[in-house]
Amino acid sequence: MATAAPKQVSRHQNNYSSGEKTWVKNDFLCWVSFKVHNGEQVRLWDDVWLGHTSFRERFPRLYNLVRRKHDTMQQVISSVPLNVSFRRNLIGRNLDDWQELVYLTSNVQITDSPDRCIWSLHKSGQFSVHSMYAALMDEISLPINKPL
User: In this structure, what DSSP letter does residue 50 have?
Assistant: First the structure.
């Protein structure tokens, strides 16, 4: 009885659990950042739009407490105060993190232009199949390359 060889996957699959489409999407998104314009496509918590990490990674305690985890920038910053609600009151370090988040979002200006996706694997910022393929191949450790 033959057994199938283990499937080679990217480093991101373990973070997600709903099949190949999800890990491919997340492999793609790990090399993408966004420039916020109208805020309709950029998610406050999940997308990288300021710096090199998402707010979900930068403020994990707040992310665990927030009610609507997938709100867009437009939904959140279109009102003052920010349109974010938490499952309980923020105190201590959580309140400090919230104040930092509010400060970081205070300089975001919503415009009429669509949000811009920036592909980090190409100097032009434009997606190319070649750059993604090269990055994926660089991540995968093929069985033929492993010592016995």
Answer: S
